[in-house]
Amino acid sequence: MSPDDREPPDRRISRVEDRERLLAEAMAHAEEQEAHYRLPMEPRRREPLWKWAVTLLLFVVAGSLALSPPALLRGPRPAAVTPGERERGIRAALYLQAQQVEAFRIQRGRLPTSLAEVSVRLPGMEYVRSDSRTYQLVVRRPDGGTVVYDSAVPRRGFAGLAAPWGLKDHAP
Amino acid sequence: MSPAHSGRGFALVDALMILGGLAVVAGGAYPPLEHRAYEHRVERVVSGVEAVKDAATRYRDSNGHWPGDAGRRGVSVDLGPLLPAGLELSTAGYALRWRAWKVVEVPPQPVRPPVESSAAPPWEPPAAPPSTDSVGTRPPVVGEMGGIEVRSSEDGLLAALLDRFGTARSFVRDSTWTLVLGPDSTD
């Protein structure tokens, strides 16, 4: 028995072989614990190519359905206003505006100085007085052209427009 | 055994495939739903126009003239009480407005009673010469006409209104469709 063994444990100085033994026991315990949780690594699985192809196809089909659906899905396409109907609309609006000017002339005995004086003013119209008796109403088309209502020749381009409205075909 | 152990796991491509399938279903369902919504809008605006037209016609039948112009409002104060409750004049897709226009009218010709040739005429013509009894010499008078406007940025909606009410009594200018209710408009 060495002199150290006779000392109480808290006073005993550890020896090198004791420390190595303790360390080896701890390492062995750790290895044993880790072995319980260690699972063999699976080799990385490659997804089949057909899955990617199908996925891509599905997204392409979805996009084409949303952007340009077939007639079967979208139903009848809403109609659009034709250029001829738009031209007729401009003339009808000019005729109506001219009626407001003529009504003003009958009631006041003179032409209005501007369209602000008449009862209803339609937007996008220019009113030009040639003299105290005649005037023109001008609408500019989106393409840059103009449509003119001339009170001196009111029937030109406007004849028959008001007949379906129940107005006699007299020019204002 | 867990799916991971069996080699049949749920991979990214599987999730994308399911997402793609859902996208196809959504892409196929969207156009019919959009068309249904468009048809619903058309029906709603047509019924709104019909309601305003009926109310204005009833007002004219009772009062002898069309309701006043609405100005910046949707309908005039004359017309408001005659409209059905809950009628939406302005929504996200369109706005309805009542208009009252002045028109120039020529009074109708006086009708002479028929004259029997065998007997003495019971009615003597007026002293004025017949030449003054023509349309050209009768002074025009100011009458009035009604109208319903629908403003919408949706061209298809305006075209549908033209189609529904006819191009003779209605027209489109810019983004506004107008239905004209003439002096003798009864329908």
Please specify the SSE layout and strand pairing:
The complex is a heterodimer of chains A (172) and B (187).
Chain A: H1 16-37, H2 49-67, H3 71-74, H4 83-108, E1 126-129, E2 135-140, E3 146-150
Antiparallel strand pairs in A: 1-2, 2-3
Chain B: H1 3-6, H2 12-63, E1 95-105, E2 141-151, H3 155-165, E3 170-173, E4 176-181
Antiparallel strand pairs in B: 1-2, 2-4, 3-4
Question: What is the CA–CA distance across the termini of chain B?
Answer: 79 Å
Termini separation of chain A: 139 Å
Shape of chain A from CA axes? rod-shaped
Largest sheet of chain A: 3 strands, antiparallel
Provide the CATH architecture of chain B: 2-Layer Sandwich
Q: What is the N-to-C order of secondary-structure elements of chain B (H for helix, E for strand)?
A: HHEEHEE
CATH fold assignment of chain B = Beta-Lactamase
Assembly of the depicted chains: heterodimer
Task: Look at the helices and sheets of chain B and give the structural class.
Answer: alpha+beta
Mean pLDDT of chain B: 80
- CATH C-level class of chain B: Alpha Beta
Structural class of chain A: mainly alpha
Count of strand segments of chain B:
4
* Residue-averaged pLDDT of chain A: 85
Uncertain runs of chain B with pLDDT below 50, 5 residues or more? Answer: 1-6, 127-136
